[in-house]
Specification:
mainly alpha; about 0% strand
Length: about 260
Amino acid sequence: MQEEAHTDKHIPSQKPLSGRSTAAPKFVVVLILIGVVAFTALSLGDELSLKKLAAREVAFRTFQTDHPVLVYISTFAAYVAVAGLSLPGATGLTLLIAWLFGFWRGMLVVSFGSTAGATVAFLLSRYLFRDAIINRFGDRLIAFNDALRREGAFYLLTLRLIPAVPFFVINAVMGLTPLPVRTFWWVSQIGMLPGTAVYVYAGASVPRLQTLAEHGIASIFTPRQITQILVAFVLLGLFPLVVRFAMKRSGRPVPSRMNSESSNL
């Protein structure tokens, strides 16, 4: 016992790390990031000016006019990849495409691109990731299959119209149900159309850089622009509520939110 006590005296005690020692590396990282941003801004100089960016926008639109098929196919493929692999940034890409192409052409690219991407995710789930998804969400599959037997394709339509479940979860879980691919495609095409239209409308309402270069930054804040964007997002928020109310009045079951476990798919 005395020997153990003697050896314990020579063991250095572990002191808790102070807040200063943990905060120092964070401070250094912040300084490095600020330095990188400052160096980038100074290096680019006038390249980030509004006139330079507006000139690049004009060059892009000229290229789009000269090579429309290439531009639209490339944009469509990029959107399918983002949606099919459930990558972040689909909303920003939607707004960008609408800003570049305008409402109607942007609507075609985003609508068919998002449905094609969802179908890709559906097929990946069905043929490649089936075991992993069953192990994680086996109990959910029972509920989805029961709802599909009762409601048929209308159940998928309500999931698309009312964002109670994230779309990438719908794509993955639906891939493990007996729902035919063709039915999944056309129901998703119709169900995602209203939300897509609102986002495309919002993106198409943003003025071009050439307009900003000619009229100044104040052109963004014209009453017409503000009204268009506000109306778009008010419609986006009200639409699911209207659909939910209509379903309750008709006696149809309304899909509820899945718990937080499903968001970690």
